[in-house]
Amino acid sequence: MKEKIKVGVVCIARKTFDYIAAEDIFKKIQVELKKIENIDWEISSELVIEIKDAQTAAQELKSKGIDGLVCISGTFALGHLILELNKVIQKPILLWGLDELPYDGGKIRLNSVCGINLNSSNLYKAGVKNYHVVIGDRIDEDWLDSLRIIKAFATKRIGIIGYRAKGFFNLDVDELDLYRELGLLIDHFELNEIYKFEVETTKSKEREEQIKKIFDVSSISEEQLSKVAELTSKFNEFMNSNQLDALAIRCWPEFATDFGIAPCAAMSVLQAEGKILTCEGDILGSLSMVAHSAIGAKTPYLADFSQVDLKENFALLWHCGVAPCNLWDEKCNRSLEPYFAGGKGVTADFVMKSGQVSFLRIDYAPGEYRLFLQKGNVIPMEKKLKGTYAKAVFEDHVKDVLKKIIDNGIAHHISVVYDDYIRPLEIFAKIKGWNVIR
């Protein structure tokens, strides 16, 4: 389900144009807007024509705590209006221009698009660049989805257990800078808080039965199976008790030695249930998955851009065995394997299903945040190695995709989701002033 947001709507106009027709169009728009899922609409039902109208509407909408403002140019209008609205509300703006009405022998009836030109120019030259433009009879739902991403970052609770994995300096974050950019704080926990977290035996037993139904467990011991079930319960209850929406885990090198297994299989099970868990203490990987989830993508997961075949033009989206178990291709044997961490790994082991996929990495380099975005297709392959993996081809040749990653120093984890989830992220990046690498 998409992140719920609250959006304000005004329609600006000028009486020297056909404001009566604009008012009729606005009423029809309001009906259509209310059909969109998971949005609370705060609509100023009267046309905003005079400066005082804009000032009143701005105060009312600000008091409602809206996440963004839709400003419909019912007709060309005073340039003051959008500036008065923005001065008070200071949220992302959608400038919505209407198609021109048929001429009736007089002057242009709406001149709405020219009004968009005026308003965008005024905002831009005032240093306000968090606006987006749509022309036509329908709102841009991708813009609405970009608001969902912003809302998710500002309201979700993100945790990290331990620290980033050893040597993975490129996964580090500046937490206060992240707070400045997105309004979120990271909750820190130690590994032993998970090791010692108590769960009811009955819940662990239920998880054990569940895991045996999902996976072929013939390669692991009864003790390892019990540990996977226990850890699945621990992660689930720990996140619930701490009200965490996402959790980054330092999954090695200590975990297998200190707890007895690596957390991969437990993470695979919980991610299939909608939990956001990331390996190797990757906080920005968690945020990438949160962004995907906010716009309706189901069960995002982290993968390495791995096993690049320049000749055959594909790459494996591989990881040691942590992908959501519901993304299995339903053909290969879906098993748990102890190959990792000196036989203590207990990772999920399967080929992932085919289909269109979208990739996202929210990444940081000194002085800038950026989004790495790609689209591609997962194609069928045989189960030939351990871990969870998908054979992917991209819109561009794989050598060009790899070059973009290497040349821009993008970290080695990407969030992967099925279907097309690119454009809302591009709009989000524009609102934030972040670079997009595609």
Q: How would you describe this protein?
A:
The chain has 14 helices and 18 strands. The protein is α/β, with parallel strands linked by helices and 438 residues long. It has two domains: 5-139, Rossmann fold (3-Layer(aba) Sandwich), CATH 3.40.50.10940; 153-437, L-fucose Isomerase, Chain A, domain 2. The strands form three sheets. Strands 10-11-16-15-14-17 form a six-stranded antiparallel barrel. The chain has a five-stranded parallel beta sheet with strand order 2-1-3-4-5, sandwiched between helices. β14 (355-365) and β15 (368-379) form a beta hairpin. α2 runs parallel beside α3, α5 (141-155) packs across α12 (283-294) and α9 (222-241) packs across α11. The longest helix is centred in the middle third of the chain and has 20 residues, at 222-241. 47% of the residues are buried. The model has no long low-confidence stretch (mean pLDDT 96).
Query: Can you summarize the main beta sheet?
Result: 6 strands, antiparallel, barrel
Question: Might you state the CATH topology name of the largest domain?
Answer: L-fucose Isomerase, Chain A, domain 2
Q: Classify the helix fraction into a percent range.
A: 25-40%
Strand tally: 18
Give the termini distance in whole angstroms: 27 Å
Backbone shape: elongated
In terms of quaternary structure, what is this?
single chain
Task: Tell me the CATH architecture of the largest domain.
Answer: 3-Layer(aba) Sandwich
Q: Structural class from helices and strands?
A: alpha/beta
What is the gyration radius calculated from CA atoms? 25 Å
Mean pLDDT: 96
Instruction: Please tally the helical runs, counting DSSP H or I stretches of 4 or more residues.
Output: 14
Low-confidence stretches: none
Strand content: 15-25%
Compute the number of structural domains: 2
How are strands sequenced across the largest beta sheet?
10-11-16-15-14-17
CATH superfamily of the largest domain: L-fucose Isomerase, Chain A, domain 2
